[in-house]
Amino acid sequence: MKNKNSHSCTINDNLERMAKTLYDYWFVQFDFPDENGKPYKSSGGKMVWNETLKREIPEGWEIRKLNDCVSLIIDYRGKTPKKLDADWSTNNDDIIAISAKHIKKGKLVNLSEANRVNDSLYNKWMKEELSEGDILMTSEAPCGEFFYLMGDIKYCLSQRVFAIRSNIKILSHTYLYYELSIGNGYSQILGKVSGSTVFGIRQDELRTVNLLIPLISLQKEFEKKFFPFITKSELMNNKTNNLALSATGFYLC
Questions:
Q1: pLDDT tens for residues 214-238?
Q2: How many CB atoms lie within 10 A of CB 243?
Q3: Which terminus has fewer CB within 10 Å in the chain: N or C?
Q4: If DSSP codes are grouped into helix, strand and coil, which group holds residue 11?
């Protein structure tokens, strides 16, 4: 099992590195393909100064707050089974409850140790259900870990986790994932962290994060190139988790 896990992690890391490199090349260095297929900035594409980001950005791009770019932020961080007159399930086939400790470096980890909820509790808890393309973000302990949700896997959103759903008329799910996890949003999120004992970010502060908004046509092109990376990465992540969960008889795929 150790060798299989090591091999899966290596493939996953390589896929993630490739996707990050593409994001950096297109949306940080601004050398996305121009109308002639040449690198935009390196080929003399017009740049304009942006006072919010204190840097030049491609002409026609804009800066908007996260609040203006999302259709929904699911926030059930204060919920517990006790508050819903229930308890965690002891059935290994029931629904996994994801908390901050299960999201690390773009992956879901330690799911074999996660709490579970039955269908009845899930229906009380998840008034808004997760969807493919939602971005899970840890709000504290630690703040700023991300996971891109794919597939029809049903999860209960538990302690210290937001689910962020983009308004696809403004931002693609995939672009937003990288803009928040490694792009312009990430340093702002960490800069807004506060707390006397446990450091975290409130939802109202998260909504004020400034994001770089490329042309939607370019975002869609990035999404086409992104999906082979994230799909293969998710497949490897599920295989790794299944190895850990196999002893309980529970499988993700």
A1: 999 999 999 988 777 666 656 655 5
A2: 15
A3: N
A4: helix
Q: Which two tokens stand for residue 178?
A: 């990288």
Q: What does the block give as tokens for 201?
A: 């970010």
* Residue type (1 letter), 140: E
Question: Which three-class secondary structure state does DSSP give residue 124?
Answer: helix
Beta-bridged to residue 230, according to DSSP, are none
Rounded to whole angstroms, the Cα distance separating 138 from 146 reads 7
CB of 172 within 8 A of CB of 12? no
The residues pairing with 164 across neighbouring beta strands, listed in sequence order, are 73, 135
* Burial class of 253 by CB neighbour count within 10 A (0 to 12, 13 to 18, 19+): exposed
Q: Give the CA angle between residues 197, 77, 122 to the nearest 5°.
A: 150
Contact predicate 188/207, CB 8 Å: no
Fold of 2-248: Adenine-n6-DNA-methyltransferase TaqI; Chain A, domain 2 (3.90.220)
> Can you tell me the distance from the alpha carbon of 116 to that of 44, in angstroms, rounded to the nearest whole number?
55
